[in-house]
Design goal:
Layout (H helix, E strand, L loop, with lengths): L15 H10 L26 E2 L23 H40 L4 E4 L9 E5 L2 H32 L7 H28 L2 H7 L5 H9 L8 H26 L6 H10 L14 H42 L6 H4 L1 H4 L4 E7 L17 E6 L4 H25 L3 H29 L22 H7 L2 H14 L14 H4 L10 H8 L13 H7 L30 E9 L4 H27 L8 E9 L3 E3 L7 E3 L1 H18 L9 E5 L2 E7 L5 E7 L8 H18 L5 H9 L1 E7 L3 E2 L1 H13 L3 E11 L3 H24 L9 E5 H4 L5 H4 L6 H8 L2 H11 L3 E13 L4 H24 L1 H7 L5 H15 L1 H17 L3 H21 L2 H33 L4 H18 L11 H6 L1 H14 L17 H20 L16 E9 L3 E9 L4 H26 L75 H15 L6 H38 L6 E14 L4 E11 L1 H35 L14 H7 L1 H8 L25 H9 L2 E2 L4 H9 L23 H22 L11 E3 L34 H6 L39 E3 L9 E2 L3
Parallel strand pairs: 6-7, 6-13, 7-12, 15-17
Antiparallel strand pairs: 1-22, 2-3, 3-4, 4-5, 8-9, 10-11, 11-12, 13-16, 14-17, 15-16, 18-19, 20-21, 23-24, 24-25
């Protein structure tokens, strides 16, 4: 059967018995029966059976890798400490603002309702009217109207916000129309809520005192409490206890509704239960569940699920309706109270304008008791002016208090500090409000003038009559209120245990789109979502484990399409696991660059392994878990072999990669590591090398042969997109829904071969992806690495480019370019229409070469934007890349970037109308911003030229025309050189001019400084310069980690003419040059080519000699021309005169040579024809490297091609004609490169026929090499020159017109200028003759050039600076959300041991899986104290290192080796490993780990004891697993699931002849688990270069067993 991999015969003593013994022999590593101990305990280094590494006694000295902290690994302790301090501030400040905002909003609401009470009377302060008298005030109707309007506005504002938000989303994004019945139900509930709110505000709260009102707001949870009770399912733990508490909470809420109406016996108080129940209907949605046992609640749950898609459509109408309904009910209440509703409008002007307050003086006999009526004739009145602005101030306090409480509460949820900074202050709002109200009311009753200078004396809260604190405890229902508070806390308990992700969207945090301002704390408690669990829940771990067939690592569980099963959901939990494929392109990287890249991948491998092991063995849920695989696409990876021109071998860069793998792994793991040599696969596109890294993730290098597949970066990207997303995803035999879920959670991490990053940088990008499903791509902050002035320039350029430009694009629209060196792309977005497919477009026009091939990253992002996807930038995700260090390399890089940037932005602007329509994140304003930037780019050279002209005038005190001439001459000369000279001359001249301009710029800077000293700080130049420098400095301060980048700003200023004038000109004039320009190396040549070059050189040398002055003394008589003369002479080779010319006689030797060459040509052609006629009689001349010359030929994958070679194409070496027979080679079975000793001794395996066919089809369709058709190349070159000429002309004319207009205006600046209002000089002169004093003002003139700078660049600077501030806030939020404070959460002592392990699981695993020290390594800096060097046990350690030991090279084996040694018995196990630096290893902690260890081991043993032929999920049974060599296979070589069949066997349908030819491997069987599945051993599943068995083994049969649905038995091949 095809799934039984080809494997070599087992060595003696290592058959079935030995395999079994090896499986269970080692008690340390093999107690787990999941055969994960195998990777480095058997056949470690490709063919060598030695598992014990021995060291000679004289060779025990060590050279361990030294940990060097640079780039991404630089010491970040200071930054980490700063971030932690910042998070502490975030905790405290957010807590204070949420609590303060809530209390202010609550207090001002009660203050407003207190003034709405009809005929309100209260004691008035006598401080200004007479201290010996008592006064009472009754609020006039105008005052009451003002407070009614204040309440209306406070209610309406959040609803208007909800309306705007809903309209924006519906108009600019997608929406769904709800069902009519569902909409009516939602409308009913929202209407009840609005009516209840009006009753509470205008009927209930004005009738009770403020303290009772504050308490009553804790009784608004009746409906949520009832729905929460009815939504309890039987699956919940401790359900009975929870139901009892639910009943008690609902009962407590109900008592709060009826206690005051019963006790006070006032008819109007019976509105309380009606209003409170109606208000609580507004939060029904958060408390219903579609899993409820009750059908009614389940139906409501279905409405709730639909509301996720229809909410914003509904709220467009509901927001307006609720405002109108609230206003209407208010009018009805006003009318029911005996007032004229028209007064609300008639008195509006007086209410918010000047009016009088009548104060009544009480007779002394009343003794301070307020009378029932104040209309007695004997009571005096005083008119007091009303402080009519108070209502506005209180309203603003209420609005801003509620808004700040909501915004900062949401911020707390986003950065995961919800418990302390959200739930705690929200729960404290009412208790704190009650406390303040008790104090304030008590003080006001005792002293009416206490708040005289703070609050107008006629306004205050409605206070309880005869208030005393002692009475409050008994009479004011304080004890009952405690029950109401506790019941609300229980019903809203979910806010204490949030499960949301970092930076979750508002939709994931809250149910309603906006808050309720009047009841802010209840709104935030009850509106916070309850069901925001992570996609993969803890209870899904066992299901994922089952789905994965106990595989140690897969990217997705493999299942047949089970969507039709009645009780099986279509989408599985494992489909939502994050899958990251790092896809790097390599070409000619140096060793240092490769090591940095490999170290980054090793770090990812280590991190992923720790997360996988933590979930698998410690049984914890890691929300950041991901699955990882690395693919490198090596361009032009082959060269002609050293021994023969007919064979190919890996070039030196591939060999360098292979050689540096061990070095990179050793540096990361701080111990000497030798990885198993890579497994080698011949492929249709060249070859493949596959490593298994220490963390067991796959590292797959695709070696591209440019004669078989199209090379360059864009085509490598097409390769991995179609391979990973097309072949390995779309061809999975699963349902469409599952594919959709997988695609949405599959990400391609595009990398360059020199990138340096840490796993945390990737996690931050994944966070952005999880937050926004419309996000197509996300990029990080790229830091240039290198040394020298060019790198310093780029440090500052990259810094301000990211700080200002990328941040602005992120905030006001979308990032236009997500660089391919470090970006994350969503698989589903790339698979969309007009993205992946259009990306395969071949460049057939001149414009395509510029837009498509010179800036492929930017074009891919343009395609995503034009399909409606968003592209974002995360400043917290740091990556480090090597940048050009030389001037020429830098200019050539930018020569590619500048035209492609302009072309792609112009493409986007040209398609702006459609893009705005389809992309929610791109607006017309954003398009205008990009147009401004494009205008600045195009006019940049002209602007810089004018700046230089003006600077020369200011610095060197010359006139405008002279300055103009001095500047125009070198620029025109440079343009002429760019048109006429070669690239190296252009670059040399550019370098000279750049140096000269740098010196001039320094003089200009000095001159400008002197000018500023004269003009003063108020001049336009000074203001602009200070603003620019200040914005850069503030930006640097807001990026403390990158602050020192600003020190390179001086080099940036000196380079402005070079980079914004010369570089632009160089790029535009060289638009027709489409070579890469960087990392170019000379290709290796064949012997024939070398001989031809040598011959040509000799001929050239001979000609030079014969043209010299003394040529007549040379042995030759002519110059090998076609003619010679009887009489001839020449003078120093300058000219030559020939008389009596005749044809030159040929030398005899030359004739013989020509005849010999002709015979060789005839012989070669005869051989070619014979080999075609009788292929078995002759060896193949080559294995298909040469392609036919037909244009557009696609037959490149044929093993041989019949074509007669021309004489100059005959590149047979001398060895070909020797008598020794040449080995017959087929590039898909035995190419020479797999035998190359420099590619190590790794095993050879072969792709499946399915994958081979995929690659052949892909190459035929999109990636066949483009033939060098001279005619087509000439056409493209001509078109490119025409494009260049037209572009240069347009560019030149635009800049020339701009320069001409501005320069002419500059010449007439005395007549055309703007007077600058700042920095005015006042001149005072005294005329002695007339004895007059003359005072004159001299204004600075804003000249035309200054006008352009101020209005254009200043506007861009303001936009970018403002956007940068907002983006910084978002980035700080992201960093804070990712930072964990151990001392701000529960202390370790307060946590149970299981909680402690769950919290530190990944860190524990990382420490337990360290390879350093696992083989008895020692620290080369061991010892401490002053004499630490003298105390080193050097000799003892060397002896220890000498001892033979088994190599352990995979992280999970190291983990298990330490994990199994964990015991709480410290006496018997003194060497217990350290878990974390912060976690003390107490016996309880170790015991908890030991319990988990024993639990896992028991599960593994139980799984292993299951019947081999038991039924499994697929209903497949298998016969005896006998391999093709007739022996039982090693149990380690293939995973066997619990059901007794390898999960890899299920979809292997390729058991035909082709399968036997090419073998079966993980990379090629039909999409084995959406992963390039390769046996983790790598020692037993490969096909060595030996005779193959052409027939399948008779036992290799798989049969479909009887399934549970009653299907019949049948036998058939899979």
């Amino acid at each position: 059967m095809s799934a039984m991999r080809h494997r070599p015969m087992a060595p003696p003593g290592q058959g079935a018995g030995a395999a079994a013994a090896g499986e269970h022999g080692d008690s340390d590593d093999n107690n787990f029966t999941d055969d994960e101990s195998s990777p480095l305990t058997h056949d470690i280094y490709g063919g060598s059976q030695r598992t014990i590494q021995e060291t000679k006694g004289w060779d025990v000295f060590r050279d361990p890798p030294i940990k060097i902290e640079t780039g991404s690994t630089a010491n970040q302790e200071c930054l980490e400490l700063t971030v932690k301090i910042l998070k502490i501030f975030a905790y405290v400040i957010t807590f204070i603002i949420v609590l303060t905002g809530g209390v202010i909003a609550k207090g001002t609401m009660l203050f407003m309702t207190s003034q709405v009470r009809k005929d309100k009377k209260m004691e008035y302060c006598n401080k200004d009217l007479g201290r010996d008298k008592s006064f009472v005030v009754r609020l006039p109707e105008e005052e009451r109207v003002a407070w009614i309007w204040a309440l209306l506005i406070a209610y309406a504002l959040p609803e208007i916000g909800a309306l705007i938000r809903s309209a924006r989303i519906c108009f600019f994004k997608t929406f769904k129309v709800p069902k009519t019945g569902h909409f009516l139900f939602v409308w009913l509930m929202e209407s009840l809520s609005a009516v209840g709110m009006a009753l509470l505000m205008f009927v209930v709260l004005p009738q009770i005192d403020a303290i009772q009102g504050a308490m009553l707001t804790n009784c608004l949870c009746v409906v949520p409490g009832i729905f929460g009770l009815l939504s309890r399912t039987s699956k919940e733990g401790k359900r009975f206890v929870k139901v009892i508490i639910d009943l008690a909470a609902v009962a407590a809420q109900v008592t709060g509704l009826v206690i005051w109406p019963l006790l006070e016996n006032r008819r109007e108080l019976w509105v309380i239960p009606v209003a409170c129940v109606m208000i609580s209907c507004g939060w029904w949605e958060n408390y219903v569940s579609p899993l409820s046992p009750l059908g009614l609640v389940r139906a409501l749950g279905r409405i709730k699920e639909e509301m996720k898609y229809t909410r914003y459509f509904c709220h467009i109408f509901l927001s307006i309706w609720k405002i109108l309904l609230f206003f209407t009910v208010t009018l009805l209440i006003y009318w029911a109270q005996g007032e004229e509703p028209g007064n609300l409008f008639a008195m509006y002007g007086d209410a918010f304008g000047p009016h009088k307050i009548i104060v009544y003086e009480l007779p002394a006999g009343l003794g301070g008791v307020l009378p029932d009526t104040l209309e007695s004739a004997n009571i005096d009145t005083v008119d007091v002016d009303a402080d009519y602005n108070t209502v506005v101030y209180v309203l603003l306090l209420q609005i801003f208090g509620a808004y700040l409480c909501y915004i900062f509460g949401k911020f707390a949820c986003k950065i995961l500090i919800q418990g302390f900074s959200y739930a705690f202050p929200v729960s404290l709002t009412v208790p704190l409000s009650v406390t303040f109200l008790i104090a304030a009311c008590g003080i006001r009753i005792d002293d009416p003038c206490f708040f005289h200078d703070t609050i107008p004396d006629y306004l205050f809260f409605t206070s309880p009559s005869n208030f005393r604190f002692n009475n409050f405890v008994t009479e004011q229902m304080a004890w009952a209120w405690i029950l109401w508070l506790l019941s609300q806390t229980w019903i809203a308990l979910h806010i204490w245990t949030p499960k949301c992700e970092r930076l979750a969207t508002t939709e994931k945090l809250f149910v309603q789109p906006m808050y309720s301002s009047l009841l802010i704390d209840q709104s935030m408690a009850l509106n916070r979502r309850r069901d925001d669990q992570a996609d993969v829940k803890t209870e899904d771990l066992s299901e994922i484990e089952k789905e994965k067939g106990d595989e140690y690592y897969e990217t997705i569980s493999v299942h047949t399409d089970r969507s039709s099963a009645p009780n099986k959901p279509s989408i599985k939990s494992s489909d939502n696991i994050t899958r990251i494929y790092s896809c790097a392109t390599m070409w000619h990287e140096t060793k240092d660059e490769m090591i940095e890249f490999l170290k980054s991948i090793m770090r990812m491998d280590e991190d992923q392994c720790a997360r996988r092991v933590a979930q698998k063995y410690l049984r914890v849920l890691d929300p950041d878990y991901y699955e990882f695989e690395t693919h490198i696409f090596f361009d032009d990876a082959f060269e002609i072999s050293d021994h023969s021109d007919d064979d190919i071998q890996c070039n030196r860069f591939v060999k360098l990669l292979i050689a540096t793998m061990d070095e990179a792994a050793s540096e990361i793991h701080q111990t000497t590591i030798r990885l198993r040599p890579p497994k080698k696969y011949p492929t249709p596109y060249g070859g493949r090398l596959v490593w298994t890294l220490p963390g067991k993730t796959k590292f797959i290098t695709h070696l591209k042969d440019k004669d078989r597949i199209r090379h360059r970066k864009r085509w490598s990207q097409v390769m991995y997109m179609y391979y990973l997303l097309g072949h390995r995803l779309m061809e999975l035999p699963i349902s469409v829904d599952r594919k959709d879920a997988i695609a949405e959670n599959t990400y391609l991490l595009t990398l360059d071969g020199d990138i340096d990053f840490k796993p945390n940088a990737v996690t931050l990008l994944v966070d952005l992806m999880k937050k926004n499903k419309n996000l197509g791509a996300a990029c990080g902050r790229i830091h240039p690495v290198g040394s020298g002035p060019m790198v310093w320039y780029q440090l500052f350029e990259y810094a301000i480019g990211h700080w200002l430009q990328k941040a602005t694009e992120h905030m006001i629209g979308c990032v236009l370019c997500s660089p391919g060196c470090f970006s994350l792309f969503r698989g589903k977005a790339l698979m969309d229409d007009n993205v992946m497919k259009k990306y395969t477009t071949r460049s057939d026009e001149a414009r395509h070469y510029v837009q498509y091939d010179q800036g492929e990253d930017r074009w891919l992002c343009t395609l995503l934007l034009q399909r409606g996807y968003r592209v974002e930038y995360s400043a917290a995700s740091d990556a480090y890349t090597h940048c050009p260090e030389g001037f020429n390399e830098f200019y050539n890089q930018r020569r590619r970037w500048v035209p492609s940037t302009i072309a792609n932005i112009m493409d986007l602007l040209a398609d702006a109308k459609r893009t705005i329509k389809i992309n929610d994140n791109i607006s017309l304003l954003y398009i205008f911003y990009q147009m401004m930037l494009m205008g600045g780019t195009i006019l940049g050279p002209g602007t810089i030229f004018l700046m230089l002209v003006g600077a020369f005038v200011a610095a060197f005190r010359i006139d405008n025309w002279t300055s103009f001439h001095y500047n125009i001459v070198p620029i025109l000369a440079f343009m002429v050189i760019c048109f006429t000279c070669k690239s190296n001359i252009q670059l040399f001249v550019a370098q000279v001019l750049s140096t000269a301009y740098a010196l001039i710029m320094m003089a200009v800077i000095v001159g400008t400084a002197l000018q500023l000293g004269e003009d003063g700080i108020g001049s336009p130049s000074a203001i602009f310069l200070i603003s620019m420098v200040g914005s850069f400095f503030i930006a640097a301060c807001l990026h403390p980690q990158e602050f020192w980048c600003i020190t390179c700003g001086l080099i940036y200023l000196l380079s402005i003419p070079s980079m914004y004038l010369l570089l632009i000109l160089y790029s535009i004039i060289n638009l027709n040059v489409v070579s890469w320009g960087t990392r170019e190396v000379v290709a290796k040549k064949t012997k024939k080519e070398l001989e031809a070059e040598k011959k040509a050189a000799e001929e050239a040398k001979k000609r030079v000699k014969q043209k010299s002055m003394l040529s007549f003394l040379q042995s030759g008589i002519g110059d090998n021309g076609d003619e010679e003369g009887s009489v001839e002479f020449s003078l120093a080779g300058l000219f030559r005169c020939i008389f009596c010319t005749h044809g030159k006689t040929s030398d005899e030797k030359q004739q013989l040579t020509s005849i010999a060459e002709s015979l060789d040509t005839i012989k070669h052609r005869m051989d070619t024809i014979e080999s075609a006629v009788d292929p078995h009689g002759h060896h193949a001349s080559r294995h298909g490297r040469r392609r036919t010359t037909s244009s557009g030929s696609k037959d490149h994958h044929l093993l041989t091609s019949v074509a007669e070679k021309s004489g100059d194409e005959s590149d047979e070496s001398d060895s070909d004609t020797s008598a020794e027979p040449k080995q017959e080679r087929d590039f898909l079975t035995n190419p020479y490169w797999i035998e190359d000793p420099d590619v190590r001794k790794g095993e050879v395996d072969f792709l499946s026929s399915t994958e081979i066919q995929f690659w052949k089809d892909l190459i035929d369709q999109y990636l066949y090499p483009i033939d060098n058709d001279p005619v087509e190349q000439a056409r493209i070159a001509k078109d490119l020159k025409e494009l260049r000429d037209s572009s240069v002309f347009a560019f030149f004319m635009i800049n020339a017109l701009f320069v001409l207009i501005v320069f002419l205006l500059q010449l007439n600046k005395d007549n055309i200028h703007v007077k600058w209002p700042f920095g005015v000089r006042t001149n005072i002169t005294y005329d002695e003759t007339t004895q007059e004093v003359h005072i004159s003002k001299e204004y600075l003139q804003l000249e035309p050039i200054g006008l352009v700078f101020v209005f254009f660049f200043a506007l861009i600077l303001i936009i970018q600076f403002t956007a940068m501030l907002f983006h910084r806030f978002g980035t700080i939020s992201h960093i804070l959300a990712s930072t964990e404070l151990n001392f701000c959460k529960k202390k370790s002592e307060d946590l149970t041991q299981d909680q402690l392990i769950d919290k530190h699981a990944v860190e524990i695993v990382k420490n337990l899986q360290r390879l350093q020290g696992i083989d008895g390594d020692y620290d080369n800096d061991s010892g401490s104290g002053p004499d630490r060097i003298a105390r080193r046990k050097t000799i003892q350690n060397l002896e220890k290192a000498r001892q033979p030991r088994r190599q352990i090279g995979t992280l999970d084996v190291a983990f298990k080796k330490r994990f199994l040694k964990l015991t709480a018995d410290a006496e018997n196990n003194p060497a217990t490993p350290i878990l974390t630096r912060r976690l003390t290893m107490r016996a309880e902690t170790i015991r908890a780990l030991e319990v988990r260890k024993n639990s896992v081991m028991a599960e593994r043993r139980k799984s292993a004891m299951q019947t081999l032929g038991a039924k499994n999920e697929y209903g497949i049974t298998t016969g005896a697993p006998i391999n093709n060599n007739g022996a039982l296979p090693n149990q380690r070589s293939g995973r066997v699931s619990n059901a007794g069949i390898s999960i890899k066997d299920v979809f292997n349908v390729n058991n035909g002849a082709a399968e036997q030819i090419y073998g079966s491997n993980g990379g090629g069987t039909i999409n084995q688990g959406y992963e390039h599945v390769i046996d983790e051993d790598g020692d037993g599943n490969s096909l060595r270069l030996t005779t193959r068995n052409p027939h399948p083994h008779p036992h290799h049969q798989v049969s479909w067993g009887q399934n549970t649905n009653g299907g019949g038995n049948g036998t058939g091949r899979l």
